[in-house]
Structures are given as structure tokens and as C-alpha cells.
Amino acid sequence: MKTKLDIAKNWLPRYTGSQIDEFGDYILLTNFQDYVTRFAEQFSCEIKGVGRPMQTATNASGLSIINFGIGSANAATIMDLLVARHPKGVLFLGKCGGLKDSTELGHFILPIAAIRGEGTSDDYLPPEVPALPSFKLHKFVSDKIVEKGQEYRTGVIYTTNRRVWEWDEEFKTRLRRLSVIGIDMETATLLIVGHVNEIARGALLLVSDTPMFPEGVKTEESDKKVTQQFVNLHLQIGIEAMTEIGDKGEKIKHFRY
To answer: What is the pTM of this model?
Structure first.
């Protein structure tokens, strides 16, 4: 296996338990097995990859969902492995911490960009290159959010490799100076590696906690509450947006910059 494509063709089935031609042209990415389970129950389709690093399901319309795990390293891995299938569009359904007073639990964020604080993306492009979504893909998603009668926020996400930082006042002061709207561990990586691999990509983030305040730090109880109230809607918006893109057949490939 001498090329990236050779490796990806071998590893994508090994990581997911799904053959390359079983994936659809449009793919939802998530960090949570629960999203894959809900997707499979809705469409009565099989979950593959149980016991492997990543689990997948694909409905009869050809829309796939992949749980790739948590963190920027896993985000880079799945976006590299997807060169074996080269989907027409990928949407990340992730959760994030809301960092502004205007971001409350259950709000949706469509990031206009992400700050590359995670380091992983530096292995792909110089730090000066911005992490940007594909505009046309986000347009489909924003239209679907409005159709559902929901509000959403836009702004810049900060992506970090730090999992436990909520106690660190110096780090929190830096986040305030950056004027970012939310924080997560995957978005910037997905956007940069998607750009490198010429895959149209986007992210619809659900605010699951407000970690700038001690009482807003995520707990098991608060996460269950968010899941019960908002995850079905989060998933449904992703499903309908990516299905509509496929039905309309509009090209969403981002211009190179």
C-alpha cells in the first residue's frame, strides 16, 4: 500500500465494518453511538461496525451516518479514510460548549469558521490557512433549520485537544479574548482535512453546556437532559438537509483557496 488512497481503501472497511460501496454519496458524522442507533431505528437499517472503532448505518435512500469517536485525531482519521469513497458532502452533527451569553442549551450553531487550536490540522496545512465550511452545504442546513421554526447562531468555533479545561481561568480568559461563540474538539480538524481531501463539508453543532460558568459545566445529568430534549431534532435536521442536497443534485464543492 504505497498511496493514501490504497491505505484508505483498506482501512475504511476495517475501521467501520462496511464495504466502500455500502456508503452513500452523502454522509452524516457524529461522536455518539446514540445518533447511529436513532438513525437505524428510524430507517430500519442495520448498524455495522459494532465492536470496531467506528459504527455506521445507511438508509435505503443512500444517506450514511458514521460514529467516528471523540477528538481531533479521530476526526482527521475519518476524513482521511473517506477519500476511499469520496462522498459528495459530509455534515458533522456534533455538540459544543456555548461561550457567549447568547448561546443557551439546545441552541444550534452553524460555524462560519473554526480556530485551529487542536494542533492536529497543522500536520495538513500551515496554521495561517483558515478552517472553513462549504458555504452551499451550510445554506441547505440553514434553510432546514428555519423550516423547522428554530433559531440558530453563527460565529467562530474554537477547536481544542484539551478535554478538561473548565477549571483553567487563564485558558478561559484567552477564549474570551478570541471572541469565539463555542468550543469543541473536532470541527476545525474536520474542515481542514476535508479541504485537503477535496470533500465538501460542514458542521451543525448543538450547544450541550455553558462551560465558562461553574454551574454550566456538563454533567451526566445535564447531558441526559440535552439528549432527551434536542438530539432527535438535531439528527432530523441533518437527515433532511443532506437528503435534500442529494435530491436536488446541486453541486456543493467548495472552491479552492
So the answer is: 0.94
Contact 122, 240 (CB under 8 A): no
**Rounded distance between C-alpha atoms, residue 80 and residue 74, angstroms:** 10
Cβ atoms of 210 and 184 within 8 Å: the answer is no
Residue 256 is assigned to a structural domain of this protein: no
Which CATH number do you get for residue 161?
3.40.50.1580
Residue with cell 476526526: 75
What is the C-alpha to C-alpha distance for residues 245 and 133, in angstroms, rounded to an integer? 15
Amino acid of residue 250: E
- Cα distance between residue 73 and residue 89, in whole Å: 20
pLDDT band at 187 (very low <50, low <70, confident <90, very high): very high
Q: Which domain holds residue 113?
A: 4-248
